[in-house]
Design goal:
By secondary structure, the chain is mostly helical. It has one domain. 57% of the residues lie in helices and 10% in strands. The chain contains 2 helices and 3 strands. Strand 2 and strand 3 form a beta hairpin. The longest helix has 42 residues. The chain is flat, with a radius of gyration of 25 Å.
Length: 101
Amino acid sequence: MGILQKIFGKEEQAAAEAAPAKECTHSSLVPRWDDPADMGYEDKVTAYTCSSCGESFSPDQKTELERADAERIREMQEQNEAHRRELEQQEAQEASAENKE
């Protein structure tokens, strides 16, 4: 091993260890069929592969992932709506304070 590899190899390894692993949301699943004649039939899919991380899922697991995604999106929408209401209240209070002055 050369000196440059020793120097830069340790830096790359340290950077890889320091970087937190981001969890894949598996939001882009590609269907797979065992028989080409079954292609296009959703009920005959044998597995789904995540195009981001390459992990494979059964049709039942895909259904559960979709359910979890829908729940995550619903929670985000609720948070956004609550934040929007807070901003509207703040703007209304600021406008009311300006009118009093």
